[in-house]
Batch of 4 targets.
Target 1
Amino acid sequence: LGPTICVGEILVEIMARSVGDGFREPIDLVGPFASGAPAIFIGQCAKIGGSAGLIGAVGRDDFGRLNLDRLKADGADISAIVVDDLYPTGSAFVRYRSDGSRDFVYNIATSAAARFGWSEAVETLVHRAGHLHVMGSALSMGSAVDVIERALPIIKARGGSLSFDPNLRKEIVYDADTERRFRDLVAAADLLLPSGEELERAAGVEGEDAAIRRLFEMDVKEIALKCGAAGAKVFRPGAAPIFAAAFVVDEIDPTGAGDCFGGAYVASRRLGLGPEEALTIANAAGARNVTRQGPMEGAGTREELGRFIAETARRSR
Ligand code: ADP
């Protein structure tokens, strides 16, 4: 039914080499790496053979080139990505704290990343698309919200589907409008891809079982729950939950694991695989991604993920 599409921020990520508290003194950095949750998702989707396209913008600069080259190499459709002549490509400086949380210095709102809208190229891609994936991180971005709100009814009218990754960030302000959009997307989603506590946040109730029940009542048809180094689960109404034990890997850089997981899960399901097989592939995509520095560097092809699955031990429950 046509490609999977995603709308939102395209960035370069520049990472601190050391763990610590923010960026208030000179530190060693590594990067730039191609990034942005929607870009990571679409890159992984395309890499395993799902037709996938991204809607967003980069600047006419080296950072933009880096992102476009990466997406093209991964096999993504970049026809609806604007190259802005005036504004630079978006960026994020990232540093991990010892507790695993992250500090960011973003340049998104005032960069090319936020400067796109409905265009002929977007219209063409949307009218071909069979699935829309929405990243919660796009909800505070007016340009992304406009495109998503226009694209969704078109895709649904064609019999296409919607997936939603809540992608909560402490830097995003959930004002009344953002909160309403968040709720609407949960209610409209066929597939939800929360991680950890985002499940309860999406359902609006506490406890895993209660949250799952509530989401099924809201007509969500499938939930792929990401549990970091504890693996992942899939829930579907009327079926027993499926659990995938995490692969045992050396975690070098957790950035992008959830987006790779999502891209691999959605692409696998859309390629016609069952939830169990899709979960195995997605679990592998997330795990493999954390073994490389850079959010898009560890995404795998179908073949690479197959090899990874065959060769990598899994944790016992
Ligand atoms: P998010 O980035 O959205 O918070 P997670 O951190 O839960 O997502 O990671 C997504 C998926 O990637 C996990 O469900 C798991 O399958 C895999 N994964 C992430 N971190 C690890 C890890 N350290 N070891 C093994 N698998 C991992």
Target 2
Amino acid sequence: MTTTHTAIGYRDNLPATDERALVTEQVPTPEPGPHDLLVRVEAVSVNPVDVKLRSGAPAGGLRVLGFDAAGTVVRVGSEVSLFSEGDEVYYAGSIDRPGTDQQRHVVDERVVGRKPASLSFADAASLPLTAITAWEALFDRLGLTAGSSGTLLVVGATGGVGSILLQLAEALLPGVRVIATASDDERAARVRGLGAEHTVNHRDDLTAQVLALAPAGVDWLFTAYSEGQVATYAEVVAPGGHVVAIDDGPRDVSPLKSRSIAWHWELMFTRPVHQTADLVEQHRLLTRVAELVDAGRVRATTEQVFTPIDAANLREAHRRIESSRTTGKIVLHGW
Ligand code: NDP
């Protein structure tokens, strides 16, 4: 007899608020492949990439979205070596496989981390994709190291990625002074609580505010919202500095090139996991993040929790993410 489980997915290319856009179905539970874990999903979180993939969904077929999940391993593939049944895990999945918005999910063990022991499933689900993205941005693209000294400007600091990136910078980059964007006083207090030393309001003149704090320009700039901003970045980043952007692009970066500012643009982690150079890189990174969490040096970024994981709550979470106004992460928990 085929075992089935509940999955929530999209059947048509319709707006999230359209009642027909999201359906709940019973689907066959897959057998894990040799390197796979079958996970009982306890919590998921929603990212802007879910919304972007939804609007690009072809009609027909159930498209189950979702990257972030935390749950319990219920079966392991024949060659699994890192995990056993009963282990509690968290991970960000892969674009080339069905998403995490379902009760049972199959994932390659090499992109999975052990859930931080000190966190609930809900809080653990807030972290994986944003932590991986922030880590890659800071350490791989911007090339920051524990010994780096200088100033980092974080644009989009209030969002999901910014909220973990600020904490990683505070925990691991003691010589880096962080300036963060926030659009009002409450949000400014929030980002200071996550490790920013100074705040600027990106709705006002960014150049004047940043140069008042860093007259020679900042050394590094992380941005989650670069549309229409490249010329401003050329003014606020010091010649020879580095910019990394993770939003949709590409952009015309000639203003930066003319000031010898290095530019990396990438909408990260939407590539198939099997194209990554080192498959266990994500496993190692999530293990390191879990250590930081359990040592009390990084906090979950959960801001809103919906219970249970169902179509109505997923629709509402997508609607809020689409507003581009949410702080931290939206998590869905329980079935
Ligand atoms: P969020 O939806 O969590 O960010 C929302 C926050 O960003 C808002 O609270 C708002 O705060 C701030 N914001 C919105 N517009 C601007 C702007 N123009 N300038 C500065 N801040 C702004 O997004 P994420 O952090 O999750 O993702 C941001 C981008 O990065 C998206 O394009 C996403 O696709 C991409 N990305 C995200 C990944 C992830 O792991 N979530 C992975 C890879 C890429 P305020 O009130 O201060 O304006």
Target 3
Amino acid sequence: GKLKMTAKVVSQETLATDVYSLVLEAPEIASQAIAGQFVSVYTHDGSKMLPRPISLCGIDREAGTLRLVYRVVGFGTKEFSQLAAGDTVDILGPLGNGFMKSDKKAILIGGGIGIPPMLQLAKELDCEKSVVLGYRDEIFLNEEFEPYAQVYMSSEDGQHGVKGNVIDAIKEYGVDGAVIYACGPTPMLRGIKAYAMEKGIECQISMEEKMACGVGACLACVCKTKEIDEHSQVHNRRICKDGPVFYAEEVEL
Ligand code: FES
């Protein structure tokens, strides 16, 4: 089960503008975490700040470490970006469900800061797979996928891979598979869901982008599902508690 612990910082480096890679010593969490899960990271300010959910980019069970790749978007993540080797930080995890792995030919799709969790998934999936990475302009992590799969890219400015989005890249390069695993911004997930339904491909999406506290406290992450309860009411779900990974057809985007 999940546990709260004080983790020691092993290292931190910058991958791109405002994108950081933080490695933490957290053997108890690393031993049980799987791709698609996240940890909530606490700030040191002592006020009532909620923790920040950050997905796991790497899980090294032997070394007992977790790797978090995140973007600085505000006060909390700014604080995390200043952590250095030897510092400590409180974390809670592993949280959420992970991807449901199968051995079907897979397409892994990551958009922007939704790319990091796909790297751990690429390592865990023991099957034929392709990776499609969507960027705005600056690229990061792409080379780290190369040992695991053929990597295709899209970027908004066309500097890297196809000019456009991940669906444009899939079409341009003829990427195919029987299951899609995706993580990224909501408009991207909406496009992927539509594509998967059109093609009749199984599709799992991580909606982690919509989380704020990650621990069920803020309700920023409520989403509608297709489930109707006994009172004919649409069943709402909290992404941080019931997800962040869902089958695309189960949720409204
Ligand atoms: Fe705060 Fe889910 S992210 S309740």
Target 4
Amino acid sequence: PITPIVLSGGTGTRLWPVSRASHPKQFWALASNQTMIGETLQRATGEAFAPPIVVCNQAHRFLVAEQLRENGCENGRIILEPAVRNTAAAIAAAALVAAQDNPQTLLWIMAADAAFRYPERLPAVLEKAAKVAREGYIVTFGMKPDVPETGYGYIRTGAPLHPDRPDEGVYRVTRFIEKPDHLRATEMLREGGYLWNSGMFVAPASVMLAELARHEPDVLENVRTALERSQHDLTFRRLDAESFLRCPSVSIDYAVMERTDRALVIPADLGWSDVGNWNALWELGDKDAGGNVVVGDVVLEQSHNCYVRSEGMLTAVAGLTDIVLVVTTDAVLAIHRDYAQDVSALVAQLKKAS
Ligand code: GDD
Ligand code: MG
């Protein structure tokens, strides 16, 4: 079976004021009427899967435990990080734990907060990925890019993995470029042949560990020690703080994906979204005749292409176009949809002011 690894360490700053450090976006029902981590866990249950491993900050342990219970993953395990050390460390910890059961076990590493318009297409794509990953590869999933987004990884698709099976739809990765600048992203779009990295990876635990050992040994060794010195019961495994804090903070994309020669890509149209900001939720949402997405207790007149969400406060809107309005019981966000990325700058300013 495949071991699902759910990375749940992000804070989702750009979805303020709903997403907060104490209760980040993956624990809210934002893209549907289910929490994003709940949907993620449900996609990874069934005969094909072992119980999941969730890696999160210790502050969120009860939120995660509750989500495991509510989504039929009572046997899931939770690795607790004493500090934020990015995804290479989180993945190293999960891979080491999974490898204790069986080093050959396949990992399906994923974000806790992605949304798919066509989730029904995932099982077939995953099955294909599992098959080729067993040959000793790290499989990525390539999403078709349409704008020069600088927050994603770009994958240059190479030759088919099996030249005798060109229709298989599995390709070598000739280059992986994490978070290019705007100019480079624009060039890659123009040039063609690049796909966005979805942030999901399928690989045998042994391969992920070997690539970490080769390219980022500092992360692996410190996490190994943090795990050896960890305290644990059936559910929680609390990584030792002293050793974990010695880990360099680096994402798996820079640490391994840009450097490895073991990467493959499967192009897939899953209707994927990383739900990074309010505009992404507008894009994903069901729209009324005026193109508005409305959630909660909202009355709306003569408005177009707006995202209006209210958490418990009666909210009335008229004559707005392309506006995001998010109302919670203690904070309000009003911003043009084109500025949805800039919420993190607002939050930084708020932190300074408080
Ligand atoms: N446990 C844990 N600990 N999880 C973490 C940590 C951490 O320190 N840091 C991030 N995560 C989780 C986030 O919650 C998210 O689910 C996932 O790991 C990815 O982290 P992000 O910080 O959101 O990465 P990104 O969006 O900048 O880039 C990644 O995802 C893109 C697609 O959304 C990369 O893989 C890109 O290449 C990719 O295109
Ligand atoms: Mg992200």
